[in-house]
Amino acid sequence: MPLSTHSSDKATGLDAATLRAWLGAKAVELGFDDLRITDTALGDASQKLQEWLAAGRHGHMDYMERHAELRSNPALLVPGVLRVICVSMNYLSLDVDFDSELQGLENPTKASISLYARGRDYHKVLRTRLQEFAKAIEEKIGRFGYRVFTDSAPLMEVELARKAGLGWRGKHTLLLNRESGSTFFLGEILVDIPLPVDEPQEAHCGTCQSCIDICPTGAITAPYELDARRCISYLTIENPETIPLEFRRAIGNRVYGCDDCQLICPWNKFAKRSSLPDFAQRHGLGQATLLQLWSWTESEFNQRHEGSAIRRIGYARWRRNLAVGLGNALASPKISTEDKQLIRHALENAIASADPLVAEHIDWALSDNTSTVSKD
User: Fold this and answer.
1) Is the pTM of this model over 0.85?
2) Which of 151, 198, 339, 363 is catalytic?
């Protein structure tokens, strides 16, 4: 709904404390885990974004540069906005164990899929509930101007959530919360209502740098600084081209995203579980082997990932990532000769029908390439 220049007048007459309490309770009723409110001023975050872009650390994510001005000023994105209602929703399914996930990274034949992507596409889940929330607010206070977002537009949502008090920026640049770690999604409703704002949280990372030390590719170049071009999540999801040779061994068996910095973070001892069926793993993605996923045809990929964030990368990138994982399995001393023969046979059988992107990574997987990444 377009933001109105008059709707805020109606909300002004309401008791702010009562409305704020109602918003928090309604958010929980709709399945969100926390709610905080902030204004639209982004301070020095806009300048830091410009410096990050100027250094080219966004890689192929050209959309970030194209819409940098909009990201820096929500009022340009949504004229008339006064406040941002920020919400979080935990996504960690009941069956996830962090120690088991870390152990799985040491099993060369197993496929590692980022935790957030094993269920339904969070964009759809949050957007539906945010729209429902906005309608409920309208029923409470009358017609007002709003627009909902969930990683769906050029909005600095992590910075807004930090400023609103949903958490603090960890050294890995993700948002952290003392009660729920970092395993939650963010959503926003930009409104033209002058709601009271909340205070930011104090940071609690201290001297810990576990996330920096564990990063396989050295993507966290310094505390609070990320080079997306080195990040496995970027390389396996956002990157549309070949995966640079120097990072392939470090990727290991990670075929969609990377959770290492979250799995090792001490604050995720407090990560809350979600009982929402939407976030439960589908098609055995938490236990699947690389060969099982490699066996999927394109139609099986599209059918099994229907309604999933994974489907957005397409079949070619999916196969590209799997080929890297299978190549790393072939190079590993941990698996049997029989398993290596099965992998080699599967890769060789796929060459003839592979598109150029996938074929290049199959050729690498079948080679004796032993290059490794340097974190320097």
Assistant:
1) yes
2) 151
